[in-house]
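Help needed: design a sequence for this.
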C-alpha cells in the first residue's frame, strides 16, 4: 500500500471514530468533569458537579419534597425471595422522603426499570415526562429514578417543575453506579429482572411511551409478572 493510501486510510478511521462519538453525544450526556473536591453544597449544579455528592438533608429538603410529591420509594415485600444480582446489598437514600432504600430487597422478585438521570442533563429532562407517562400505565413495571452527580435540591426542583411523580433514589457515593458498572453517560436505563439480574438498555432518549414499553419487553421474560 502506498504512503498516500495509508494516510488516507488512517484519516478515514479517525473520521469514523469522530462520527461515532458525535452520534453518541447526540443522545446522551457525558459525566461533567470535576474541577476539584471542594464541598458540593457551596457549588451550583452544572458542569463541575463532583462524583461524590451529599446525601439529602431532610430539614432542608422537606419543602421541596412536599412540592415534588413523588410516589413512595419501593419497600421490601416480606414474601419476596432473598435479593440477588448486582443490586443485592445496595442501600441508597430515597430522594422524595427521609430514609434509605435497600434496593435489592425492595425489587427482589419483581421487574423494574432503573433510569439514571440528573437535573443538569437536557436529555433527561426531555424523557422524564415520557417515563412518568409509562409508569402510570396499569401494566407498567416499576420505574425507579436514580439521581446521580447532582444536588438533591436541583433534582427535586426539576421533578416538581416537570410534574414527574415516579420515585427516585440518590447515589451519593456512586455505589449503585459501580454495582451496575454504569458507563459515564446519562440518561441511562437498566431493566431489572425478577431473578435480580439486570440488563443495560442501549443508551437512548425515550421519546414515546411505546419506546419504553418495547425496551422493557425486549429485556424481560415473556411473562415478567
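Sure. Designed sequence:
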Amino acid at each position: 500500500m502506498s504512503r498516500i493510501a495509508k494516510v488516507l486510510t488512517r484519516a478515514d478511521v479517525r473520521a469514523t471514530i469522530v462520527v461515532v462519538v458525535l452520534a453518541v453525544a447526540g443522545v446522551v450526556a457525558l459525566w461533567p468533569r470535576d474541577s476539584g473536591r471542594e464541598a458540593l453544597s457551596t457549588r451550583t449544579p452544572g458542569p463541575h458537579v463532583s462524583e461524590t455528592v451529599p446525601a439529602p438533608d431532610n430539614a432542608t429538603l422537606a419543602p421541596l419534597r412536599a412540592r415534588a410529591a413523588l410516589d413512595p420509594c419501593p419497600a421490601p415485600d416480606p414474601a419476596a425471595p432473598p435479593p440477588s444480582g448486582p443490586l443485592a446489598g445496595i442501600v441508597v437514600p430515597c430522594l422524595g422522603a427521609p430514609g434509605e432504600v435497600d434496593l435489592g430487597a425492595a425489587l427482589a422478585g419483581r421487574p423494574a426499570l432503573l433510569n439514571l438521570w440528573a437535573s443538569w442533563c437536557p436529555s433527561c429532562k426531555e424523557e422524564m415526562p415520557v417515563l412518568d407517562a409509562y409508569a402510570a400505565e396499569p401494566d407498567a413495571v416499576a420505574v425507579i429514578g436514580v439521581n446521580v452527580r447532582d444536588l438533591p435540591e436541583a433534582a427535586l426542583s426539576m421533578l416538581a417543575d416537570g410534574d414527574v411523580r415516579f420515585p427516585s433514589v440518590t447515589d451519593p457515593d456512586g455505589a449503585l453506579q459501580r454495582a451496575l458498572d454504569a458507563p459515564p453517560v446519562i440518561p441511562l436505563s437498566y431493566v431489572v429482572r425478577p431473578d435480580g439480574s439486570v440488563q443495560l438498555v442501549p443508551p437512548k432518549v425515550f421519546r414515546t411511551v411505546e419506546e419504553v414499553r418495547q425496551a422493557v419487553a425486549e429485556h424481560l421474560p415473556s411473562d415478567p409478572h
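The beta strands are 29-30, 91-93, 100-102, 112-117, 142-147, 168-170, 185-186, 188-192, 198-201.
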